[in-house]
Automatic annotation (TrEMBL):
This is AN1-type domain-containing protein. Gene3D superfamilies: AN1-like Zinc finger. Residues 4-52 form the AN1-type domain. Keywords: Metal-binding, Repeat, Zinc, Zinc-finger.
Length: 156
């Protein structure tokens, strides 16, 4: 083993595989490899305490509704649509428009520029793709310092 201090061994006694990105079971708080990550795969004693996270999304307004049982998704969504998709029902992911002038793309997970701290679509995520003001200022200062050096280095 080249890196014995990195990673965690799977908590399952019959596995003990070294895993660099282990999954922590919400029931027993033990770390497991990908093969034994699900509570049923490692016979978790706290299986009944692990919440079953199921949600349904409205196909019209994209509202998300957490569900207690997987079978009641149709009932919840049908009732929501019958009520006219009221805006106060369910969770709606925040959708942000790309900050590049003229771009009309919207995303619930925009890429944030590390220089200007504005959100952009994937096409305009790089500094030179969205004409980042801060990047332009940095480039201008670099150009100015390079031109000063060129003036000092004039050989006659």
């Amino acid at each position: 083993m080249e890196f014995p201090d990195l990673g965690i061994q799977c908590a399952l006694k019959t596995c003990k595989q070294l895993d660099f990105l282990p999954f922590v079971c919400p029931g027993c708080d033990e770390a497991f490899c990908v093969k034994h990550a699900h509570p049923r795969q490692h016979e978790c004693p706290q299986t009944n305490d692990v919440p079953n996270r199921v949600a349904a999304m409205c196909p019209i307004c994209s509202a998300v509704f957490p569900l207690d049982r997987a079978g009641d998704a149709d009932e919840v969504i049908d009732g929501h649509i019958d009520r006219g998709c009221p805006p106060d029902e369910g969770f709606r992911p925040k959708v942000i428009a790309c900050a590049k002038d003229g771009c009309k793309k919207k995303s619930s997970d925009p890429v944030v520029c590390p220089l200007c701290h504005r959100g952009f679509c994937v096409k305009h995520r790089l500094e030179f793709d969205h004409e980042c003001e801060r990047n332009q200022a940095i480039l201008a200062s670099i150009r100015a310092s390079v031109s000063k050096r060129k003036r000092r280095c004039v050989v006659s």
